Amino acid sequence: EVQLVESGGGLVQPGGSLRLSCAASGFSFSSYSMNWVRQAPGKGLEWVSYISSSSRPIYYADSMKGRFTVSRDNAKNSLYLQMNSLRVEDTAMYYCVRDVSGRNWGQGTLVTVSS
Amino acid sequence: DIHLTQSPSSLSASVGDRVTLTCRASQGISNYLAWYQQKPGKAPKSLIFAASSLQGGVPSKFSGSGSGTEFTLTITSLQPEDFATYYCQQYHSYPITFGQGTRLEIK
Predict the structure, then answer these.
(1) Which of B43, B96, B97 sits opposite A106 (nearest CB)?
(2) Cβ of A62 and B46 within 8 Å?
(3) Which residues neighbour B106 within 8 Å (Cβ) at sequence distance 6 or greater?
(4) Candidates A50, A59, A102; nearest CB to B34
(5) Which of B23, B61, B78, B93 has the CA that lies 20 to 30 A from A61?
């Protein structure tokens, strides 16, 4: 069974940093591209970042460029999202998603940016 | 960026009904379109990829069609568990974008 388990969310002040993790199991993680997608409370889905199976190429949504960094460790079957200079508008549930067609989603980890 | 417009934004239907949801892209995306179902407090669930291919384990009451700029998701014989919000997503080019969602409610 495919499982994607996110962790690392929490409450952080504006300007702060968080590192999200996604632990993958049940499939050959190193063979698949991965994405981060977020959803602000009561809002729709917003794509955050893409990383290929080999870590190149990498893409970001414009509003995250320069602040967020996606990475992966295929040996550990893990995906990461380093988030710096966090803003109130980054408050959302962050989902780890398998491949560009969104085959599998994790349960999400909640990031709250507030003073 | 490719903009996706879903219609209607909300829809009331009855158990047993057949409904069709539409997603229009601002430019051609071939068949690089996915559909998701999301229930309150839950992660989205993948239903359709490549515009018309059913994800494994998804019942055949869900079907997708379209290519280019116009796409549809049809759900037959609505059951209580089908009432949810549905999103389309294009993965033809970056940034990946989603439609604003269609909320399917029980009449």
Answers:
(1) B43
(2) no
(3) B12, B13, B14, B15, B80, B83
(4) A102
(5) B23
Say how far apart CA B20 and CA B75 lie, in whole Å: 6
Give dist(CA B2, CA B13) in Å, integer. Answer: 30
In three-state form (DSSP H/G/I as H, E/B as E, the rest C), the secondary structure along B12-69 is EECCCCCEEEEEEECCCCCCCEEEEEECCCCCCEEEEECCCEECCCCCCCEEEEEECC
**CA–CA dist B106, B80 (Å, integer):** 8
Residues of chain B where predicted confidence (pLDDT) is lower than 70: none
Q: What is the mean pLDDT of chain A?
A: 97
Q: What single letter denotes the amino acid at residue A82?
A: Q
User: What is the per-residue pLDDT across B9-19, written as a single tens digit (0 to 9) for each?
Assistant: 999 999 999 99
Place of tokens 């993965």: B91
**What is the per-residue pLDDT across B30-47, written as a single tens digit (0 to 9) for each?**
999 999 999 999 999 999
A57 contact B CB<8A: no
